[in-house]
Amino acid sequence: MEGWPYCPSIEDGPAHLKILHNHPLSSRCTLGVGGNAQQFVQATTLIDVEQALQHCEHEGLSLTVLGGGSNVVIADGGVCGLVLSIALRGKRAFRMGNRARVHVGAGEPWDDFVDHCVSQNWAGIECLSGIPGTVGATPIQNVGAYGQEVSSTIVNVLAYDRSDSRVVTLSNAECQFAYRSSIFKTRDLGRHIVLEVEYEFPVGGAPSIKYAELSKALASQASPTLHQVRDTVIALRRQKSMVLDANDPNGRSCGSFFLNPVVTSEQLQHIRAVSPAASPPSFPQTDGSFKVPAAWLIEQSGFVKGLERGPVGLSTRHALAIVAHSGATARDVVALAHEIQDGVLAHFGVRLHPEPIFLGFEKLEHGLPTLP
Fold it and tell me: What pTM was estimated for this model as a whole?
């Protein structure tokens, strides 16, 4: 397709591995907290990835992979070993009838890619507009928002298999996608380094408008276009401080901190009984369970928007976002997360599970780093 050249970041290229020592990481994550990497490498080619792995094996170093830093909390003590930042760029697209097949380097900025797809009239990820981070994170997290999940468009994931020391292609089914999860976060945690993602989109497809909030915002549009859906999603996210904005006082966060819990019908009845004056929103699942908004549970447990705990707090616009202010530490963030998790459990009997990945912490309990 014209106008979109492919940069061959995955193919062989010159070796130029550059190792940085005691490299600051706080500026590489949207939360803006955390210490330094013992060693740091930015990989722009497959050879960089392979040489970084060889270096770790030779020096006896652990390896931590870092993408766009939009969904991580980095420990104040930093990260031991080598931190590998995936910056593989490049895109190529093929037209197959009324479908577009697109290969994208893992280091490509996600929202730039969404913008291009919408401009090409490729449907399938328009509701995922405004989400920070890189393409490589989307299959790991099975990124989703406003009724869409990226798993519905992913065909294959090209990854480096650290166990077999080779590049492998994992099909959609092999990725075992689930709600905000995949094989990369569960059974094969740490095994694969995502290099490239292959997507497929219907050309000229209709936008997805499944989410009530989005539908309401588009009510004045008889037949919303992909562009209108994208613009509306970004506007909704901006209202919640869920887009990157250096001037937003709620801007230093990693987005939604907790996953929406899936509860049984008995648990839902208990939640309703505990809060008879405010019935919880609930969304039936195919297995008979119900998804309940974590933000609702948090607020009903007494953690209101704008709550402050020293240099950290909740966003003034969204109770699901923990915000770091000037002087905040990772410990401050984790302490508030524990307080919220414990409070919701005590009030509703539901344990919230965190969405971010925690780097450099020694031990996790119920998904959160333990505090001394």
Answer: 0.89
